[in-house]
TrEMBL record:
This is peptidylprolyl isomerase. PANTHER family: PEPTIDYL-PROLYL CIS-TRANS ISOMERASE HP_0175-RELATED, PEPTIDYLPROLYL ISOMERASE. Residues 15-34 have a biased composition (Basic and acidic residues). It is an enzyme of class 5 (isomerase). It catalyses: [protein]-peptidylproline (omega=180) = [protein]-peptidylproline (omega=0). It comes from Cognatiluteimonas sedimenti. Pfam families: Rotamase_3 (PF13616). GO terms for molecular function: peptidyl-prolyl cis-trans isomerase activity. Residues 1-42 are annotated as: Disordered. InterPro entries: PPIase_dom_sf, PPIase_PpiC, PrsA_foldase, Trigger_fact/SurA_dom_sf. Its EC number is 5.2.1.8. Belongs to the PpiC/parvulin rotamase family.
Length: 299
């Protein structure tokens, strides 16, 4: 493939959030201890060609693949080790080891894998027509964020302090009743009672977008109507008296504002598909035994 300047698009292996070279090299050579079997070698049921991947290898790798069930974690770890070994073997077969200088904190092995993937996976840049078609078919995804402008009074209480949280809620309910009768007292109550630094601004939080506050607080605040909330809002920090000053729904974005984001997304999707096809080719070339059984056990 002819050399060309490429933007970095971090191709990842399925079920991993790491770029392929990093994931393939992940914890390679770790000297952590795995399970021991009374001095006997750990059993091996997974092979790439004539290379055995032991249960001890898989157990060490599992700590980097959290899942709801150990069977799923084991399968993800086994797949990651197989991918690493397949890419290592292909680098060796093509004589690419040592052909690239590492970039940044990249290891020599990661650099060789990067060169391998740049050589074998063709970069396909989506056309203007591709991007516009995706935009037209997914317009609902391209909106500016919803926003609310709010003030609050926080009465803090640790999550495990049952009495403290009951008192905080009761005090918030009392303040809400007073504020319903006299809304002008909000800033004064905030300065005198709130445990949040925003008390210095009378409880003013400014404009909030989704993702800027704790999830449980955000979920409730974005459901409130403009005005004083009729009930305390609970969060991990305690209870809040909340007043929504303004609410602004997200507006539709035009194609020009999101074209580059769409192009990057579509390019990454194509490269992911090509990567999976390439890994299947390597699996057929070098031979893998035992992975299907491990993944079947994970359900």
């Amino acid at each position: 493939m002819a050399a060309q300047t490429q933007r970095v698009l971090p191709i990842t292996v399925i079920d991993s959030d790491k770029p392929v070279p990093e994931d393939a090299h992940h914890h390679h050579g770790s000297d952590g201890d795995g399970p021991r079997s009374l001095g006997q070698p750990a059993p091996c049921m997974l092979f790439v060609a004539d290379t055995a991947i032991s249960e001890a290898d898989i157990a060490r790798e599992m700590q980097h693949h959290r899942a709801s069930r150990p069977e799923r974690s084991r399968a993800d770890a086994a797949r990651a080790l197989v991918v690493r070994e397949l890419l290592r073997r292909e680098v060796e077969r093509l004589g690419l080891a040592g052909t690239a200088a590492p970039i940044g904190r990249e290891t020599a092995e990661e650099a060789a894998i990067r060169i391998l993937l740049e050589r074998e996976l063709e970069r396909r840049v989506p056309t203007e027509e591709d991007c516009r078609r995706y935009f037209e078919q997914n317009r609902e995804r391209f909106r500016s964020p919803d926003r609310v402008r709010a003030s609050h009074i926080l009465l803090a209480a640790p999550a495990d302090d049952v009495d403290g949280r009951f008192k905080a809620r009761s005090e918030c309910e009392r303040m809400i009743a007073e504020l319903q009768a006299n809304p002008a007292l909000f800033a004064d109550f905030a300065m005198r009672h709130s445990h949040c630094p925003s008390r210095e601004q009378g409880g003013e939080l400014g404009w909030l977008e989704r993702g800027q506050t704790t999830p449980e607080f955000e979920r409730q605040v974005f459901r409130l109507r403009v005005g004083l909330a009729a009930y305390p809002v609970e969060s991990r920090w305690g209870y809040h008296v909340v007043e929504v000053k303004e609410a602004a729904s997200g507006e539709a974005q035009d194609f020009g504002a999101v074209r580059e984001r769409i192009s990057d997304y579509l390019e990454l999707q194509v490269q992911q598909r090509e990567l999976q096809h390439y890994l299947l080719e390597l699996q057929q070339r070098h031979g893998v035994r035992g992975l299907e059984e491990i993944e079947a056990a994970a359900g």
